[in-house]
Amino acid sequence: MAAEELSRCGWSEGDPLLRTYHDEEWGVPVEDDRTLFEFLILEGAQAGLSWLTILRKRAAYRLAFDDFDVAKVARYDARRIERLLGNEGIVRNRLKLAATVGNARAFLAIQAEFGSFARYQWQFNAGKPTQNAFVGRGDVPARTELSDSISKDLKRRGFSFVGSTIIYAYLQAVGMVNDHITSCFRYGPVQKLGRRSFGK
User: Fold this and answer.
1) In a 3-state reduction of DSSP, which class is residue 131?
2) Cα within 13 Å of Cα(173), Cβ side
3) CB within 10 Å: which end of the chain, N or C, has fewer?
4) Which residues are catalytic?
5) Cα separation, 80 vs 149, whole angstroms
6) If you count DSSP H runs as helices and E runs as strands, how many of each does the chain have, helices first?
């Protein structure tokens, strides 16, 4: 079956960039800290915007934020934020940019405490993705008890732009929950992907 004929989650239709992201990344369990940091920042940047807008700016974000090297981003100062405010390739919101730097510092603190951000994050799910079985897009929640718990703990640790709705979108992106609808061609393959090493 041709790629364009496959059944997908409705939100991914209409743009090749969304379709590629849906087919290759969305819902795949992530345990690499750099990738987790990238998605955490991009999901926060999306607040009030569409995910397609952020995907179109993703390459610019990687250039602007040293390929999401968390240690480098944590060292950004006020002058660097001012330069970023002049970067037309990213979302030029002072609060979001300041949050990126603050979140990088909080991210490093978690790495120091747990050995990795992935280990910290996956403990909330006992190391295993939540396998949902939603039939339609309208069945998918905007937040859950899991996202509530992680959001609350991240805020306690000094993170910002990590409300429960943002965190749930993040959990979908990095595969802590499988929210592909059951008719989507990616539902089964993603369901078979598990991460158990962080649940020990």
Assistant:
1) strand
2) 21
3) N
4) 21, 43, 51
5) 33
6) 10, 2
The structural domains of the chain, with segments of one domain joined by +, span: 28-199
Q: pLDDT by residue (tens digit) across 102-136?
A: 999 999 999 999 999 999 999 999 999 999 999 98
Residue range 28-199, CATH number: 1.10.340.30
Environment class of 188 (CB within 10 Å of its CB; exposed 0-12, middle 13-18, buried 19+): exposed
Q: Yes or no: say if 9 and 22 are a contact pair by the CB < 8 Å rule.
A: yes
Strand ranges in the chain using DSSP code E only, listed in sequence order = 130-131, 177-178
The dihedral sign for the CA sequence 36, 24, 61, 143: negative
Distance CA 131, CA 105 (A): 32
Distance CA 172, CA 28 (A): 9
pLDDT 10s digits, 63-73: 999 999 999 99
